[in-house]
Amino acid sequence: MTAERTYRCDALDKKGPIETVHFILSQNPHIQMVNFWNYCYVPLMTNESNSRSFWETRTNILCRPTVDFVPQDERDKFQTGIGSKVFLSSGETAQIPMMDFQIAKSNENLELLRKRLNHVGIESGWILETGESYHFYGNTLIHTQEEWMDFIGKCLLASIVNSRDNIQQIADSRYIGHSLRRGCCVLRLTSHGDKTYSPKVVARI
Fold this sequence. Notes:
Blueprint: H1 17-27, E1 31-39, E2 52-57, H2 58-62, H3 72-77, E3 79-88, E4 93-95, E5 98-100, H4 107-119, E6 126-129, E7 134-137, H5 145-157, E8 160-163, E9 166-168, H6 173-182, E10 186-188, E11 200-204
Antiparallel strand pairs: 1-2, 1-3, 3-4, 3-10, 5-7, 6-7, 6-11, 8-9
């Protein structure tokens, strides 16, 4: 079997989500299993009845540069995303901080996003650009449901209130709604269907 892959923090620039996940795992050796999801992206959907959740071991993930642990027939039909829930060697569960944003891509907005995340107390992680906006992965695990809810709330509060009728949303509120319903966040790792842009690291917080 191929040896586990590791990445230096400064080597993640322009890397994709798989490499980011590998780095998080290498920095958190007590993570033993990671949650993944196969799903079909449907704009404005209100349920996730067409999704499937499964678990993979850290060794199986770190020994592979892609998501080839997913059967080929499923990769041909579904997006594969990483779920934020992880199992630890202690037998406890934790969550990787993750978020999907809706602020439009631009150099100005990328700097604004970094400042807004810092403003609400999110100070460590990576921003990946997507086709239209950004994803976030944190390196410091969240250990309780209360802490995860606090993280979700902080991301909502990163919005900029110019006036009662003029609020600039930063985080994707529908994404947060789905995350609250399923009890974890999910960010895509693959490019399939309408989502053809491969996310890549563009900033570190």
